[in-house]
Design goal:
alpha/beta; Rossmann fold; globular; disordered N terminus; binds adenosine-5'-diphosphate; binds magnesium ion
């Protein structure tokens, strides 16, 4: 169904293929997170704090897809946000290729996120007024690439996800599955090492979801993918599945 050339369109942004050996892409080490804790300090006695993660340690080697499962509220999205540098955990290390991003300044962490992480959300988060191509090109605005190169890369990525003929369509003119493929193309725009996907098939019917999963599987071959899902089909594409329960790692299979 897809042109399996996602890897083939490897980056005009930067060619890091040689660096992508069998190293650890992501390592969470003893990560605890309390929402509502002030100044990053643990205040377990404070009723307003919610302990979302408790001493979570996870390793994701390059070239693998790790699935996160667990009931609603078990901490899946919080893990993904920590991996993506969208939050700084109250305690523990979040290493991206050996660098503890939790210890970086906000500006440095934002830079790491923009260059090295691709994020796919359940509800796509596309800008409705922009074409599919402009949505995909958006993360490249700060890359220093000339506009014509950004457009070309976005066009190629849309082709790779099977939407070569839809590049001028706006999100409202696309189906749910097509929107998610645009969102995946956008996540790949900066050629990131790591993709995090939060319930990427949650809004899609089974057949459409399967097509999105094929794409994620393909992407995971030479990156690291962390995908949270309730859905068995999604977890089936993972090399390893981690079960979270009440903020703790309950099982690894
Ligand atoms: P999941 O993705 O597995 O459903 P989450 O990581 O979203 O779980 O949530 C874990 C826990 O943290 C839940 O108890 C949830 O209510 C809480 N939580 C999530 N986001 C916030 C937030 N921004 N502020 C306070 N509590 C939150
Ligand atoms: Mg969630």
């Amino acid at each position: 169904m897809f042109n399996h050339t996602v890897r083939g369109s490897r980056s005009p942004v930067r060619d890091r293929a040689g660096e992508r050996e069998s190293t650890t892409a992501v390592r969470l080490d003893g990560v605890t997170h309390e929402y509502g804790a002030s100044g990053g300090r643990l205040r377990s006695s404070d009723e307003r704090t919610v302990t979302a993660l408790r001493d979570v340690s996870i390793e994701v080697p390059m070239g693998t897809t790790v699935g996160l499962e667990g009931p609603s509220g078990s901490g899946k999205s919080t893990v993904l946000h920590a991996v993506a540098g969208l939050l700084v955990p109250t305690a523990g290390r979040v290493e991206l290729r050996g660098t503890d991003i939790a210890a970086l300044s906000d500006a440095e962490r934002t830079r790491v996120r923009r260059h090295h992480i691709g994020i796919v959300f359940q509800r796509f988060h596309l800008l409705p007024s922009l074409s599919a191509r402009a949505n995909v090109a958006l993360p490249l605005v700060q890359s220093g690439l000339p506009r014509s190169d950004r457009r070309e890369r976005a066009t190629n990525l849309l082709h790779d996800v099977g939407l070569g003929d839809r590049s001028t369509h706006r999100p409202g003119e696309l189906s749910g599955g097509e929107r998610q493929r645009v969102a995946i193309a956008r996540a790949l725009a900066t050629d990131p090492d790591v993709i995090v996907a939060d319930e990427p098939t949650g809004e899609l019917d089974t057949a459409t979801g399967t097509a999105v999963l094929e794409l994620l599987t393909d992407i995971g071959r030479d990156r690291a993918v962390v995908v949270a899902s309730h859905d068995e089909a999604t977890l089936d594409v993972a090399d390893r599945v981690i079960t979270l329960c009440d903020g703790r790692v309950d099982d690894v299979r």
